[in-house]
Write a structure and sequence with these properties.
Elements (H helix, E strand, L loop, with lengths): L7 E5 L4 H12 L3 E6 L2 H13 L3 E6 L5 H15 L4 E4 L14 H29 L2 E6 L11 H21 L4 E8 L5 H4 L3 H9 L9 H12 L10 E4 L6
Parallel strand pairs: 1-2, 1-4, 2-3, 4-5, 5-6, 6-7
Helix pairs in contact: 1-2, 1-8, 3-4, 4-5
The structure holds acetoacetyl-coenzyme A.
The site of acetoacetyl-coenzyme A has 19 residues, from helix 6 and helix 7.
Length: about 250
Amino acid sequence: MINLTGKVAIVTGAARGLGQGIANKLASLGAHVVITDMNNDGAESTVAGIMEQGGSAESYICNVANKEEANTLINQTVEKHGKLDILVNNAGINRDSMLHKMDHEQWDAVIGVNLTGVFNTMQPASGIMREQAAGRIINISSASWLGNVGQANYAAAKAGVVGITKTAARELGKKNVTVNAICPGFIDTDMTRGVPEKVWDLMVSKIPAGRAGKPEDVANCIAFLASEQASYINGEVINVGGGMVL
Ligand code: CAA
């Protein structure tokens, strides 16, 4: 039985979709969750949903692509709560385009949030977790890191997330900190709902489970990685995709 009572967690990009599902799950298992997003109304609504269920949460407005904002997020959370047990780097955007049509704005925006944003939170958090000699970092990569039509920027960022995850796992393992990555497959969120209908059908046709995933499918795996039971799992890249990538 997973119990996160007394744990302090940050989930980035938790105003909706996958991040909201992850935050709800961690809170339902007893963690106090800092709901971080740029979308204030969405973040407040995630907090309200958690409180209604008897959980504990607060919202924090932050653009993780901005290093000062990310640094302040981590440091203020530790000043307020005395520690940081769990960091889930979920914040992500897509600016899909065929490579020959992709402009630098689309490239920079996606790399800035999806890759630099992960470095921006992990850099201060890793120092704090080293000192605590405890911690869990879970990064959301994507099945797209292996390549996906129209996602050169997104795939490059998500492949980079795998690299920083495995490096941090090696650096922090002896400090009782684990760092793992999850690769969601095709999960039913606003982001995937934005793809053309023919691409949606194509994606779902590749999934042995026969359906798009739900945010809870991913959240269940994260809850386990955040728990004491997962203390010997480090540096892994875990697909949660109904068998989409085998
Ligand atoms: N697999 C195979 N072929 C694909 C494809 C895919 N996933 N996506 C597009 N194509 C094909 C199209 O069928 C089309 O082929 P034809 O020329 O033979 O008709 C060709 O690529 C060009 O596609 P479009 O005609 O749609 O070209 P466009 O320039 O108008 O749009 C696009 C290109 C923006 C990439 C659009 O196709 C698109 O949005 N595709 C979806 C991209 C995608 O999968 N995004 C995932 C979003 S969810 C997410 O990011 C979360 C996560 O972690 C996975």
